[in-house]
Amino acid sequence: MSEEQPHDWLFKEIFSVPEHAASHLRSVLPAELVARIDWDSLAVENTRLHISGLDTKEADVLLSVQLARKPALLYVVFEHQSTEDWKMPLRMLRYVAGVWSEYLKLHPTARALPPVIPCVLHHGPTPWRNPTEVASMVEVDDETRALLGPLIPSLQFLLDDLTALDAEQLNARTSSAAVRLFLHALHRFATTTDPVGELLRLQDLNREVLAAAHGRQALSAVLWYLLTVNDADPQALEVVLDQTLGAPGTEALMTTAQRIAKEAAEKGRHEGRQEGKADSLVKLLTLRFKKAVPAPTLARIRGASVAELESWTDRVLEAETLDDVLR
To answer: pTM to 2 decimals?
Structure first.
């Protein structure tokens, strides 16, 4: 995983699955437009390839579809920041222009451009209060604006402001179960003091996620997010997952453990920090062996060298016992 924020990574993980992206966009785009899109044609494009050179984020998603039987592109930006970017309309104008530039490079004989529908999915501490249209950023009196008319760019993006919705409104959306779980995770997981209670309240939705295609992948991603942004007890999470979801739930948690193991190893190689590696190893051992790490073992881990921690981390998932890891 790259250095993007956990919420950015979770967004990309969910929206990189065409079925999830389609279900979300169907619930937020105008109904008349939804009816003209061939959703079976939706595919995830390589964002970096299409708008190289622009300040895009890993969380940006570019999708291609057939709109009224012709090619079109949907560009989705995920915004999560404490301070809103008032320049977002200008950013979206640059992104759209960048997509078109790349399109012409790939289709040098083209004499027309495909529509690009810019969308912003906003989640932050406060509702969106800034412009959604380039023209509104231009400071000019009304009379002069009327004279300038179409000379002022008028690109507007579709804003999906999650901060304006409550849990009941999220549940009422027609998005896939995985997308609705993703939205609930963004709303509550980083701030809740009762992560186990949150999972219990979402148990029906979790079952729905697991019953769908790509369900275990989605649940594992959401569990990773919970363990990353919240000081949740892995043992308590395993108990509630086992009680409400059975083996599929605990297997999703183990997939999460494998993801954490891989990230811990990568973090260790790049950063070389003993403390961070020790913390990651303790979390992994708790997930792997379903119990708290004994105090003597904790002391040994805290005093271990970087090389020892790397070796132990590599053995976590294959080892049968704690002693096998620390041999």
So the answer is: 0.74
